[in-house]
Amino acid sequence: MATTKAAAAAVRVMGVVNVTPDSFSDGGRHLDPEAAAAHARRLIAEGADMLDIGGESTRPGAAPVSAAEEIARVVPVIEAVRAASALPISIDTMKPAVARAAVAAGAGMWNDVTALRHAPQSLALAAELGCEVVLMHMLGEPGTMQAAPRYDDVVAEVAEFLADRAAAAMAAGVRRERIWLDPGIGFGKHMLRHNLPLLAGLRRITALGFPVLLGVSRKSFISAVDGGGVAADRRLGGSIAGALWGAAAGVAAVRVHDVRETVQALRVWQALGEAAWPS
Ligand code: HH2
């Protein structure tokens, strides 16, 4: 049991807490801070190793949110989680003002889907805050990213982008050991033509030498692979398949909505690996 537990911790599970009215995956369910804090506590009880708290949806067509509104959504939830637990908290935002307020409230990681490109001061602020940062690949802007994404070689282009952003962050003063990379599944990628080869080539991203965060949970490509028309909350099987695929490719953490089921899947996968190839 102890071995299985320790090994399962090798791939960390980041539970998603969306304090938004319109997230593609669970919009509106946890907009009230009390409901969001209760959801966060549930994910902790289910075995999350960290939480990713966000106050703005990144899906195309989502309503823009001011920094003040985003702060009003996420800070009470961060404070409530911090009061109840020492679990690492990530803030999912592209806005420097939100990142600053979230870190002041107790977040230790800035998850930025724009890889610190949204505002000119983002890189310097990440260095100043001294928190961990997730640099995610996205082609284009959230509003239009799915219009007509084009790549010659999606794996090579995503890897090159992430290596460049890591270099930019380090040049701005972010310490190397604080940097995470994320291929950005579903962000400016054609459902099957780009997401599948990118997942197939995930080892090229983990080989860059930074911890990799992977978000496949409930994403649209799962519905496309499964014949189409599968609602976001009916994509658990595909989400788990993606998490296990990421684990096999060496990712450090998976960003998921269904924590309990993912933790169990990773534990079984890990235990089988240990039984098959004892060290
Ligand atoms: N995916 C979403 C949001 N943030 N951050 C990282 N680093 N990687 C991801 O894959 C990622 C992310 C989209 O999922 P969700 O938060 O459920 O939806 P929405 O953006 O609509 O709130």
Describe the structure.
This protein has 279 residues and is α/β, with parallel strands linked by helices. Helix content is 44%, strand content 13%. It contains eleven helices and eight strands. Helix 5 links the parallel strand 4 and strand 5 (132-136). The chain has an eight-stranded parallel beta sheet. Helix 1 (2-8) packs across helix 11 (259-276) and helix 2 crosses helix 3 (67-84). It has helices at residues 2-8, 33-45, 67-84, 96-105, 122-129, 154-171, 195-200, 202-206, 220-225, 236-248, 259-276, and strands at 12-18, 50-54, 89-92, 109-112, 132-136, 179-182, 213-214, 253-256. It starts with a helix and ends with a helix. It has a single domain, classed as TIM Barrel (Alpha-Beta Barrel). Residues 1-9 have low confidence and may be disordered. 6-hydroxymethylpterin-diphosphate (HH2) binds at residues 16, 18, 20, 23-25, 54, 57-59, 92, 111, 113, 134, 136, 182, 184-185, 213, 215, 255.
Any chance you could write out the topology, listing elements then pairs?
Elements: H1 2-8, E1 12-18, H2 33-45, E2 50-54, H3 67-84, E3 89-92, H4 96-105, E4 109-112, H5 122-129, E5 132-136, H6 154-171, E6 179-182, H7 195-200, H8 202-206, E7 213-214, H9 220-225, H10 236-248, E8 253-256, H11 259-276
Parallel strand pairs: 1-2, 1-8, 2-3, 3-4, 4-5, 5-6, 7-8
Helix pairs in contact: 1-11, 2-3, 3-4, 10-11
Bound molecules: 6-hydroxymethylpterin-diphosphate.
Helicity, as a percent range:
40-55%
Do you know the CATH architecture? Alpha-Beta Barrel
What Rg, in angstroms, do the CA atoms define? 18 Å
The count of helical stretches stands at 11
Shape: globular
**What characterizes the major β-sheet?**
8 strands, parallel
Mean pLDDT score, rounded? 93
Give the full name of the CATH homologous superfamily. Dihydropteroate synthase-like
* Topology as a string of helices (H) and strands (E): HEHEHEHEHEHEHHEHHEH
Number of domains: 1
Give me the side-by-side strand order of the main sheet.
6-5-4-3-2-1-8-7
Report the end-to-end length measured between terminal Cα atoms.
16 Å
CATH class: Alpha Beta
Share of residues in strands:
5-15%
Q: What is the SS-derived class?
A: alpha/beta
CATH fold name = TIM Barrel
Which ligands, by name, code or SMILES, are bound?
A: 6-hydroxymethylpterin-diphosphate
Record field, number of beta strands: 8
What are the segments in which pLDDT stays under 50 over at least 5 consecutive residues? 1-9
